[in-house]
Amino acid sequence: SFILASIPGLEAAHFWMAIFLCSMYIVAVAGNCAVLFIVKMEPSLHAPMYFFLCMLAAIDLALSTSTVPRVLSFYWFNTREISFGACLVQMFLIHSLSAIESSVLLAMAVDRYVAICHPLRHAAILTNTVTAKIGLVAMARGVLFFLPLPLLLLPLPFCSSRELSHSFCLHQDVMNLACANTTPSVVYGLTAILLVMGLDSVLICLSYILILKAVLRLASWKERLKVFSTCVAHICVVLAFYVPLIGLSVVHRFGRDLAPLVHITMGNIYILVPTVLNPIIYGVRTKQ
Prior knowledge:
Elements: E1 2-3, H1 14-41, H2 48-65, H3 68-77, E2 81-82, H4 84-117, H5 122-125, H6 128-146, H7 148-153, H8 171-175, H9 183-216, H10 221-228, H11 232-254, H12 260-285
Antiparallel strand pairs: 1-2
Helix pairs in contact: 1-2, 1-3, 1-12, 2-4, 2-6, 2-12, 4-6, 4-9, 4-11, 9-10, 11-12
């Protein structure tokens, strides 16, 4: 088993930290469930953009539910131990769901590109069937790319420290505790992230470069702002996903000597902030 990380010197504050995390979790669950319910009940929202938003909400619900209840159990009941099998399952869920979310964000960027650059063909290109197929491909991509991560860790011996640097299990964190050659796991993990999150981020940037070129061809600034304002919510959601992801990666790569508080805080931000912000951002920016 592994030992989940606690913040040295702040053990007495775990109860109040758990209340704060629980409040954020309740907001995330309520917001994402509201998105799913509203889109289901309102026929005018049965369009690709809102179906992608539902996929995003479902992923956020699964991602937060796979981690936050275990973190709350640790903070409230001091159950710091997590079994090896449970840790690998949680690790797989976190990484695969993050990959699926990245793919859905790319699909939403493509939806905005088609809607702005080819408005007359939008309904013909992004039908409900095509949207469902994109969702299935995103799911298969996330699962297939990140299923090998726990499988590569299964045969490794863990004979030194058992304490993780987060309140949940991440691949880099668990891998660092192995007392054997982890080169295959390091290489595959980096390759998977570059081919999924890395490639997706590049394609999202490319889609917005094309959108910006199309917007700048419009005659008036009023028209330009009106068209580009339809992308603001998606841009904010993309930033809410990728900024914590990059921050967590930087902390893992260059911040091994940083205080445990930094690692734990960055991990909690990565898990909770996007799931809380996504329904709020779309709720504020989308009149429908």
